Amino acid sequence: MLDIKLIRENAEKVKLGLKKRNFEIQLEELLGWDSERRQIISDMEKLQEKRNKSAEEVGKLKRSGQEPAPGLLEEMNKVRDQIQERERFLVVIEQKIEDFLLRVPNIPDDSVTVGKDAAENKVVRQFGEQKKFSFKPRPHWEIGENTGIIDFEAASKISGSRFALLKGQGCALERALISFMLETHLSRGYTEVFTPFLVNRESMRGTGQLPKFEEELFKCKDDELYLIPTAEVPVTNIHRGDMLEEKDLPKKYVSYSACFRREAGSYGKDTKGLIRNHQFNKVEIVKLVKPETSAAELESLLNDAEEVLKRLGLTYRVLELCTGDIGFSSSKTYDLEVWMPGENMWREISSCSNFKDFQARRMNTKVKYSDKKKDFVHTLNGSGVAVGRTFAAILENYQESDGSITIPEALKGYMKVDKIEARKK
């Protein structure tokens, strides 16, 4: 959520920042409500001061044994009614302001390249070379079915499209990846948390999923609970409403979770394989930091996500997203894309973002400095990384000509095998 004071004092700058991300906005109505709100508060303060003086006068009269004049009591009641009336108006105005602000995206950081869409994203660096094969590499869904470790047909029978069922060594590989990712981030100073997969509306609103993305979420019919689309939601909301001490920052969390997304806007897109499923596993890294350190903390978080891919020996590249492609809540985002030789394309495997104080304002999460000054924290998160997409990348990058899959060195201690053999025909 943007700061209403920022909008009030820098309306044209806010408009320009939002225009860079293709979001046109008219602020006149909002600023009118804000002006009305401040006038109501000013009126209430004057009325309360008047009421306090009358109450003090009544108290003096009673202490001296005198009865207050009827007119004085009537005036007090009149002032009380006026205060209550303005309180009701204030609630309505503040709700209008909040509803408006909840639908406005974050302003891009000044360092973000101005661009219309994903075509203008900038490649920052690449790690590794695209692997060459002596045979035509196959896509991961074919490899998974041919080795018997993925059964899409059974998943479809059980649940419908965009689900996957893992079997045998496929289950072991999924578990190995989760454990490997968690332990990698633990070794880099993160604290592990395991959260509920169902969260309330306040949590979804706190990190920006609501009200903007309601159609993308799975919601329980009889309860005001939502299945999480990412562990970012429950982990960041651990500190909703908290006042954190400066000495306790940064807070660094890592969390495994299942994730659930309706993929409402992706009809006909990536219908095969593990890329765009309704349910998938992910390891998430989350930071709550002091505002003055958040730019550096984003670079550090990005390096932490990269470390997973480096240790797995996967070829990847880092993209800095332009203003027209960053997410609703983000101020700056890097994407990690892994090379998929079977599909002959790059696939996003992690998105690392700095939200600045956008989420913290929604959650009312602040830091208290040693000099007693208070400010909203900055929040950051990234996939560390998407487990299903990493599973797919390993199948495509480590496939052999005989249909088997070599296990990356980093996972052999978790898998207890060096290779997943192809099924005998």
What does this structure look like?
The protein has 425 residues and is an alpha+beta fold. It has two domains: 4-101, Orthogonal Bundle (Helix Hairpins), CATH 1.10.287; 118-420, Bira Bifunctional Protein, Domain 2 (BirA Bifunctional Protein, domain 2), CATH 3.30.930.10. Helix content is 39%, strand content 20%. It contains 13 helices and 15 strands. It has helices at 4-9, 11-19, 28-63, 70-101, 140-147, 152-158, 169-186, 201-206, 232-236, 294-311, 358-363, 387-397, 412-415, and strands at 122-127, 191-192, 198-200, 225-227, 243-245, 251-260, 279-289, 316-320, 332-340, 345-356, 366-368, 374-376, 378-386, 405-406, 419-420. The strands form four sheets. Strands 1-8-9-10-13-7-6-2 form an eight-stranded mixed beta sheet. Strand 9 and strand 10 (345-356) form a beta hairpin. Helix 5 packs across helix 12 (387-397) and helix 7 (169-186) packs across helix 12. The longest helix is centred in the N-terminal third of the chain and has 36 residues, at 28-63. It is elongated. The chain starts with a helix and ends in a 5-residue tail after the last strand.
